[in-house]
Structures are given as C-alpha cells and as structure tokens.
Amino acid sequence: MNGPALLEMRFAAPNYAPFPVTIVRGKGVYLWDESGQRYIDMMGAYSAASFGHCHPRLVQALTDQARQLDTISRAYFNDRLGAFLARACTLTGMDSALPMNSGAEAVETALKAARKWAYKVKGVPADQAEVIAAEGNLSLVDGEECADGELADGVFDSGAEEQ
Q1: Smallest Cα–Cα separation from 35: which of 71, 11, 1, 69?
Q2: Is 84 inside a domain boundary?
Q3: What's the confidence (pLDDT) of residue 49?
Q4: Could you say which of 39, 59, 110, 148 is the most buried, measured as most Cβ atoms within 10 Å of its Cβ?
Q5: Which structural domain range is residue 21 located in?
Q6: Confidence at residue 36, expressed as pLDDT on a 0 to 100 scale
Q7: Structural domain contains residue 21
Q8: Is residue 144 part of a domain?
Q9: Can you tell me the distance from the alpha carbon of 22 to that of 3, in angstroms, rounded to the nearest whole number?
Q10: pTM of the model
Q11: What is the pLDDT of residue 67?
Q12: What is the model's pLDDT at position 43?
C-alpha cells in the first residue's frame, strides 16, 4: 500500500473495505492506478453517477458553473434550484422534491416527515412529538447480527462513557 492509501486506512471510518488499489485518474470508462495499470470502471459510484470520467461536456459545465457560483447553502434561494425541482416533479409526478446527496439527509427528512405526519394525521399536540431511538435497534452490521444491547465492531455509541 502507498502513502495515500495508508492515510486513508488510518483516518477513514471503516464503513467500506476498499480494493487494494489506489486510483489516481480516469477518462471515460477507464481508471488508472498509481503504477499506470488501466482498469474498466465497473463501479461508477455504485451507479449513482455513472457518467464516466472527465467527459468534456461535463467538465465544461462544471467549469462554467464554478466560475459563476460554487455550492451554496439551502439557507438561500438560487437561480437554478426552482427550475430543477419543477422538472423533477414533472418527470416523477410528485408534488415536491428534496435533492440530497447523503443518507444522513434522507434520514433527517424522514424524521421530519414522520413528525409532520404525527401532528397533521395522528393529532399529536404541537411540540409534543418525540423521536425515539432504542439501543440495539440496528440488527445487521457487515452481515452479522448484533447481540441484544451490544454494538457491532466499528459502531460506537456517542453517548456511552469511555471505559
């Protein structure tokens, strides 16, 4: 393993077990490692973004946008999101959409939707809804069942005291 891979192994939370190769560049469907070995990229960001690597039109679109405005907080309106959401809702037949790029945002949105449902549908009094997480409610981690009340290797309880 090389220096960048060793740094990643040392400091990255162990949620994946990467292949023993360090990718340094890509073009189209191909990837190259630090020794120049060429691979066909069959992972494509797990199909979430299978555009290939360094496509000239995408590089140009990214460059053009970066020259005008980078990523901004959703605390502001911007001149692009409304048109994107309108198109997404038209294509999907949904009334609204919430673009996101992580599971954490999806969980946060699901909790907010559940709380709104509790207030509007179940009639829970205002400011009385609670989100409850129970110890041991994670049943599978890395394909192994967790014993009741125990956390699997690599999973930590942020509220637990250090032993």
Answers
A1: 1
A2: no
A3: 61
A4: 39
A5: 1-54
A6: 96
A7: yes
A8: no
A9: 10
A10: 0.52
A11: 94
A12: 79
Q: Which residue is listed with tokens 């020794």?
A: 35
CATH number at residue 1: 3.90.1150.10
Concatenated DSSP letters of 23-74: EEEEEBTEEEETT--EEE---GGGGTS-S-BS-HHHHHHHHHHHHH-----T
With a CB cutoff of 8 Å and minimum separation 6, the contacts of 108 are none
Domains held by the chain: number: 1
Hey, what are 2's tokens? 């090389």
Q: How far apart are CA 77 and CA 96, in angstroms?
A: 16
Residue 101 token pair: 């790029």
Q: Are 27 and 53 in contact (CB under 8 A)?
A: yes
Is the pLDDT at 87 greater than 50? The verdict is yes
Over 50: is that where the pLDDT of 21 sits? yes
- φ, ψ dihedrals at 115, nearest 5°: -65, -45
Structure tokens at 142: 């890395």
Nearest to 107 by CA among 131, 77, 90: 131
162: pLDDT strictly greater than 60: no
Structure tokens of 109? 């949105």
Token readout for 1 is: 């393993």
Over residues 94-145, the pLDDT tens digits come to 898 888 777 777 777 888 888 888 889 999 998 888 777 566 554 444 444 4
Hey, is 140 helix, strand or coil? strand
